[in-house]
Structure formats: structure tokens, C-alpha cells
Amino acid sequence: QVQLVESGGGSVQSGGSLRLSCAASGYTYSTYCMGWFRQAPGKEREGVATIDSEGSTSYADSVKGRFTISQDSAKMYLQMNSLKSEDTAMYYCAADSLGDAYSSGGCGLRGYEYDYWGQGTQVTVSS
């Protein structure tokens, strides 16, 4: 019903920047929240940033001040600045079409509340 495709990943040195994009297609009018999640080898998936239809955002403490999530009518973005080696992970785009992640305070960072997922784009930060 909703298809998500990430792009923009790559390799960068610590301190560098990358901008990830998520293209959404299919029926997206009922989407309450969208977000970025990441998973490094041997680690659990973690929420990175989320955004609701009005532009309210939430960030993981580990990326606050460095990452910025945004969206337009067709895509969602994650601007990543001051990248650290700890940011190395597969980054996934996700959407919540059921409203599970949505609240008046914004969209949650819990992955299980999201219904649609992209295939991921790899981000590798070296020092």
C-alpha cells in the first residue's frame, strides 16, 4: 500500500555530512508519522528522528543538534551533520499509517509503531 525507498547513504569521514532521502509512493494520505531508524551490526534497531504531518519533530538524544529531519510533499529527509563513527548503521525510512506512533506531543521513536519500511541505505563513518 505504501512503498518507501531510501537513498543518499555512503561513506564519509567523521565530522562530515550526508543527506538521506526517503521517497514515498502508493497511498500515503493517511500517514500520521514518518521516521528514520538505524541498526548497526550486533545492536538493536533504534529510532533516530520522526516527524508528523505538521512538521513536529522528535530526535534521539544521541543525534540532537546534529541531525535534522524534514519532509515535503513527496519525500522525507534526514540531514546528518558532524557525523561520528557511532552513527555507522543501516538507516531505514518508516511510516505509520495506523496512528500508533502519533500523539499530540509528536511521533514516537518506537519502531514497532511503524507499519511500512524501506529496504535501508548504508551509512559508514570512518575516522
Explain the overall architecture:
- This protein is mostly beta strands and 127 residues long.
- It has strands at residues 2-7, 10-13, 18-26, 33-39, 46-52, 57-59, 67-71, 75-80, 89-96, 102-103, 106-107, 116-117, 121-126.
- A hairpin with a 4-residue loop joins β5 and β6.
List the helices and strands and how they pair.
Layout: E1 2-7, E2 10-13, E3 18-26, E4 33-39, E5 46-52, E6 57-59, E7 67-71, E8 75-80, E9 89-96, E10 102-103, E11 106-107, E12 116-117, E13 121-126
Parallel strand pairs: 2-13
Antiparallel strand pairs: 1-3, 3-8, 4-5, 4-9, 5-6, 7-8, 9-12, 9-13, 10-11
Give the key terms.
about 130 residues; mainly beta; four-stranded antiparallel β-sheet; about 55% strand
Tally of alpha and pi helices: 0
Parts with pLDDT < 50 across at least 5 consecutive residues: none
Main sheet characteristics: 7 strands, mixed
Distance between the termini: 40 Å
Q: Overall mean pLDDT score? A: 95
Estimated helix fraction: under 10%
Strand content is over 45%
Please tell me how large the radius of gyration is: 13 Å
Which structural class best describes the helix and strand composition? mainly beta
Total DSSP E strands: 13
Shape: globular
The helix-strand sequence is EEEEEEEEEEEEE
How do you describe this structure in short?
The protein has 127 residues and is mainly beta. It contains no helices and 13 strands. It starts with a strand and ends with a strand.
